[in-house]
Amino acid sequence: MDTPVVAEGLEKRYGETVALSGVTLSVERGEVFALIGPNGAGKTTLVRALTGTTEPDAGTARVLEAEPTAVDRDRLGVLPQAFSPPGRLTARELLAYYAGLYAEHRDPEDVLADVGLADAGETWYEDLSGGQQRRVCVGTTLVNDPGVLFLDEPTTGIDPAGRRTVWRLIEALAEAGTTVFLTTHDMAEAERLADRVGLLAGGDLVARGTPEDLVAEHAGSSRLEIETTAEPSAFEDLAFPVAARGEEVIVRGVSPADIGAVVDYLDARDLEYSGLSWSEPDLEDVYLALADETELERTNRTDRTGETLAHTGETA
């Protein structure tokens, strides 16, 4: 089978705003691809372009070997960021309604169980909690047993237990061969679920790869944070890179086995400290590093443009 999701050079503008700037990517069968990025980065626009609800200004997209507007909807599941089904239908009735839209569909009772709402089937949608409502919405995308599933921030508003139910469900779907494309602001979600992650910033796909590869390339080394009022110069003989941040000293490249040596260094010099915190880099560090870098570049471009306009007497 061909690659289920392919985008080549997708571009989209809304007036002067560039939502997508030549985005190219592909997602393989059974793969979970997580798209992360700041608000306004273009994530929802990309999902809409791939699902046929937004026409790009340039570039091409194919889903299940067809143009997005021509995809067999029986094979596609889409959960938009905003989705408001009728409030006076029960969770069971909603799933039965959406199941009835397809010639072949799953048993709504099974879907209710999958999303962890077997005991809430008779509750009106409007009386469910926000997290339960979101899980029902996830369920509506599963009744047709789709081959490709697009989920735009699927776990927003869901409590930790419900979130883990949805995570396990997504993992099971991918293991069974479903291709999953999701957007999220939850870095733990992306790190757990995704085979590959793409970071979209300013309409550009600025990085992509496995979570492990992105962390290794962009997140830096482990860090030991020391809460202390000691001057940074007091650490100049420490055999690790050191940086100061307020009343914290950050020591880089420290393994768990090295923490004792750092404590010995502090004690030998009577350096007082109120806390130690060790952490490994993760996907959130990647996000912060790349998103900040992209925002800084955009700000610099804007500043340069402003300077040029000022010199020429023009206005933006």
UniProtKB/TrEMBL annotation:
Keywords: ATP-binding, Nucleotide-binding, Transport. InterPro entries: AAA+_ATPase, ABC_transporter-like_ATP-bd, ABC_transporter-like_CS, ABC_transporter_ATP-binding, P-loop_NTPase. GO terms for molecular function: ATP binding; ATP hydrolysis activity. Pfam families: ABC_tran. Residues 5-227 form the ABC transporter domain. Gene3D superfamilies: P-loop containing nucleotide triphosphate hydrolases. Belongs to the ABC transporter superfamily. This is ABC transporter ATP-binding protein.
